[in-house]
Amino acid sequence: MSDVLDRFDRDGYAVFREVIDRELVEEAAGHVDWLQRHHPDLRPEQLGHTLLRDDPFWLRLISDDRLLDIAETFIGPDIALFASHYISKPAYSGQPVLWHQDAAFWPLEPMRVVTLWLAVDHSEPENGCVRLVPGSHRGDIQAMRANTAVDNVLGEEIAADVDESAAVDMVLAPGDVEVHHPNIVHGSNANTSPRRRCGLTIRYIPTSTRITAEEQPFPSAFHLRGAPGVNAYQPWPIFDPARHYRFTDAEAAGE
Predict the structure, then answer these.
(1) 10 Å Cβ neighbour count for 138?
(2) Separation of alpha carbons 129 and 191, rounded Å
(3) Which of 183, 129, 187, 193 is nearest to 154 (CA)?
(4) What are the domain boundaries of the chain?
(5) What is the rounded CA–CA span in Å between residue 112 and residue 103?
(6) d(CA 29, CA 47)
(7) Predicted local confidence at residue 200, as pLDDT
(8) Is the pLDDT at 255 greater than 60, yes or no?
(9) Cα 13 to Cα 182: distance, rounded to the nearest angstrom
(10) Judging by beta carbons within 10 Å of its beta carbon (0-12, 13-18, 19+), is residue 145 exposed, middle or buried?
(11) Which of 49, 114, 132, 233 could form a disulfide with 74 if both were Cys (CB 3.0 to 4.6 A apart)?
């Protein structure tokens, strides 16, 4: 893995192919549909972390050992979840994510965190894939400014010029995972294609990183592996067929 870490240090991102099997990815796609039916007030790009604390499938997915093994490569063996978010861009109308750095938003101290972006659908330039500026993680954290001139996921953008000609497209197949640094400049275009583009962001922290948000425990703080460290955590939800998305081995969830 030393070559992966060397490239990550240089570029600020890495790509892992065929991490999650087709069956689990299909369950994730069904989960997104289920969430949209149960939360019709939310845009599909906004299926975020506050929904996670009472969702056994979401926890089953983000705690998959194949994902935790990748996270461990970057942050070590003591792992917690900070946040997770489906960004599902519907065909023809999916909103862009304007250029930003994740570290500009997050209540973490220190800023030791890694994002895994799990492709639920094929993700390509035509349907608004993630775009990254390699090496930009080595720069400073820039201020953000409001931008409501165009409908977008964050309502903000980085208050600095971005050399878009240097950006690279993260072309991913379902089950692939892209990993990126919290300081890297990234975003994605609108989806004007006839195909949905859905991905799940998963923000893993070492358990030595403190979540400094006022609400404690944080809605999506879960202990996943190793020593529990410095944070308070949510209890693991137990599957209830009357309230939760049904999935393979759902009845064992939370036991």
Answers:
(1) 13
(2) 8
(3) 187
(4) 2-235
(5) 10
(6) 13
(7) 98
(8) no
(9) 10
(10) exposed
(11) 114
Q: Are strands 114-119 and 144-146 parallel, antiparallel or unpaired?
A: unpaired
CA distances (Å), origin 3, targets 8, 11, 73, 118: 9, 12, 11, 21
* C-alpha to C-alpha distances, 184 to 2, 86, 122, 169, 180, nearest whole angstrom: 20, 20, 23, 14, 7
| CATH number for the domain whose boundaries are 2-235 | 2.60.120.620
pTM score of the predicted model: 0.96
Alpha helices by DSSP H, listed for the chain, are: 2-11, 22-38, 56-62, 65-75
Considering only CA atoms, which of 124, 123, 82, 121 is closest in space to residue 105?
A: 82
The full DSSP string for 109-178 is ES---EEEEEESS-B-GGGT-EEE-TTGGGSPPPPEEE--SS--SSSEEESS---GGG-EE--B-TT-EE
**Alpha carbons 199 and 201: distance in angstroms, whole number:** 6
Question: Which amino acid makes up residue 17?
Answer: R
% helix / strand / coil in the chain, to the nearest 5?
25, 25, 45
Q: What is the mean pLDDT of the chain?
A: 97
Strands of 222-225's sheet in order across: 13-16, 177-180, 114-119, 197-206, 79-89, 222-225
- Cβ neighbours around 226 below 10 Å, total: 15
Q: Do 212 and 63 meet the contact criterion of CB atoms below 8 Å apart?
A: no
Which residue type, as a one-letter code, is found at position 143?
Answer: A
Mean pLDDT calculated for residue range 237-254:
90
Tell me the pLDDT tens digit for each residue of 85-137. 999 999 999 999 999 999 999 999 999 999 999 999 999 999 999 999 999 99
